[in-house]
Write a structure and sequence with these properties.
It is a single chain. The protein is of the alpha/beta class. The chain contains 10 helices and 14 strands. Strands 4-1-5-6-14-13-12-9 form an 8-stranded mixed beta sheet, sandwiched between helices. Helix 1 crosses helix 9. The longest helix is centred in the last third of the chain and has 12 residues.
């Protein structure tokens, strides 16, 4: 049995392609899971991942703190707030549970939450993720911006470590490889949070990795992808990729990566 169980919400998407051949149109569809490398890395670290794909979150994501307590941490990655807010009951015009409030209560009661970035992370590319001014934002170490926050940088961003003694960086050798984008967020400079790593772009200094202890729980903001495409091929091939991903969920779950790794 795995030493730790976590829940991963998101990281899947469907694509429909239309090909015009003269006057004929051919349609095809494909499904992609962006968490393959992440899930493989965590399995090697003896962490069992239950993944609820983005298209399944509305019907399958837990609706109570009690249901979430079986997991040491929840990872919300590249899935928007509406996919969690809109339940089957909501679609029928009935009052239902607010699962963002459930996540907040889960953290305050001792659970762990990792929010990862992507086009549908934080506020999201084109503002589509919509986590600004939500209960989930309340417990994060960063604040979402109230507009499109996606930063696409094809030439690459160089991560800079700000707190090399943080447990999440246990066993990690600098430097971190380049990333190709992130969600721009605002760090909580109120003493409640720790800024672990940043990226500079033009005149801005943007959080890449930040942590927070709140209530009895812990939260992590990782503002880039856990897989392609914002994580470069170099990052995914980096020997410490798996260690970094597992350290984030271990720390969020209340375990010390330096001891358990």
């Amino acid at each position: 049995m795995a030493a730790l169980k976590i829940l991963l919400a998101g990281e899947t998407f469907r694509a429909t392609t239309l090909v015009a051949v003269g006057g004929d149109v051919i349609a095809s569809a494909s499904q992609t899971n962006g968490a393959v490398a992440f899930n493989t890395a965590l399995a090697k670290a003896d962490v069992a991942v239950t993944q609820i794909g983005s298209e399944q979150c509305g019907s399958e994501f837990p609706t109570s703190v009690e249901a979430l307590r079986q997991y040491g941490a929840v990872v919300v990655s590249d899935v928007g707030a509406l996919s969690l807010l809109i339940t089957p009951e909501t679609r029928l015009g009935r009052c239902s549970v607010n699962r963002l409030e459930v996540l907040k209560s889960y953290v305050e009661a001792g659970g762990g939450l990792v929010m990862a970035g992507g086009y549908m992370g934080f506020q999201g590319m084109f503002g589509g993720a919509k986590f600004f001014d939500t209960p989930v934002e309340d417990v994060l170490p960063v604040r979402c911006l109230p507009y499109s926050d996606g930063l696409e940088v094809p030439e690459g961003l160089t991560p800079a470590i700000r707190r090399d003694t943080h447990p999440i960086l246990a066993g990690i050798e600098e430097p971190l490889p380049a990333i190709l984008g992130l969600n721009k967020v605002s760090f909580r400079y109120d003493g409640s949070s720790t800024l672990v790593a940043t990226c500079s772009h033009r005149n801005g200094l943007w959080p890449l990795l930040a942590t927070r202890c709140i209530g009895k729980g812990r939260t992590v903001a990782w503002t880039t992808d856990i897989g392609p495409h914002w994580l470069s091929a170099e990052f995914l091939d980096w020997p410490h990729y798996g260690r970094l991903m597992s350290n984030m969920v271990l720390w969020a779950s209340g375990k010390d990566p330096a001891v358990t790794a």
